[in-house]
Automatic annotation (TrEMBL):
Residues in the signal sequence: 1-22
Name of the protein in question: Advanced glycosylation end-product specific receptor
Record carries keyword Transmembrane: yes
PROSITE patterns hit by this protein: IG_LIKE (PS50835)
Superkingdom as given in the UniProt entry: Eukaryota
Topological relation to the membrane, as annotated: Single-pass type I membrane protein
Ig-like domain residues: 31-115, 123-220, 234-315
SUPFAM superfamilies recorded: Immunoglobulin
GO cellular component assignments: plasma membrane
Amino acid sequence: MAARAAAGAWVLVLSLWGAVVGDRNITARIGKPLVLNCRGAPKKPPQQLEWKLNTGRTEAWKVLSPEGGSWDSVARVLPNGSLLLPAVGIQDEGTFRCQATSRNGKEMRSAYQVRVYQIPGKPEIVSPASELMPGVPNKVGTCVSEGGYPAGTLNWHSDGKLLIPDGKGVSVLEETTRHPQTGLFTLQSALMVTPAWGGAPHLTFSCSFSPGLPRRRALHTASIQLRVWEPVPPEVQVMIQPEGGKLVRGSTVTLTCETPAQSSLQIHWIKDGIPLHLAPSPVLLLSDVEFDDEGSYSCVATYPSHGPQESPAVRVVIGEAEEEPIAGEGLEADPQG
């Protein structure tokens, strides 16, 4: 009677879960039943077989009795010789072996390496920033994944591309904790980014959890879009050397367009309201100046986020070189001489 009841329970397990497996490497979900086949074992008693295991529950190899015992709640031998684990746990990770003798006396062995897993809830980004500022580190937010096993990894993405921490423009602070009772993991990953001046006005971020076992899909958070706020740039100015801008023909004048330290800016020059057809440069050098070089000069700095900004104009004045006076020149004759 007891044997028929046990057989009925085994059939029920198989019909519900389809958990009979024959592969040597097994992955089983935590809390679910698992059935391991004993190859070569007769389907009905009498049977000659032995199951032994070495897992997180044992200090060495543990031999299970087909007649049952104190381990029945953890693992028990079914009437057909298979081994049933009613609810797999983290401590059941390890090696399971069965040795059986068939009716014709042939000895066969089965060996399984069991690993367990638990899929965590969907990760989420907590405490996201409202906006970012260029040129300084900004905390985007913290990605959190709870209740997974093995630990797995968290990855950040920007505009669909994987972000790789470089310690400069992108850095990540990670923390992994484990629940003292369940053994499940909680992962946290805080992302810091330094947007470049003149970059995109909006950046999109997301986070994904990759399980610690192969052939398991990554889980993704919803994306967040953050505005990159750039303050209005300070006024562009032209510095002239020599100061004052008063020159003589044949001399040299240097005009320098002073802007915020942004290598991405395009600098163009204007004379008397007309753009000069020169390559972009923050410095305009006028050599061997002539009268046609005289005029008002300004520079235009083009910001990707704010557009062009023109400096106040400076005046370049060209004069003739002063000649040294000749002795006696310009003196009137003495009427008394």
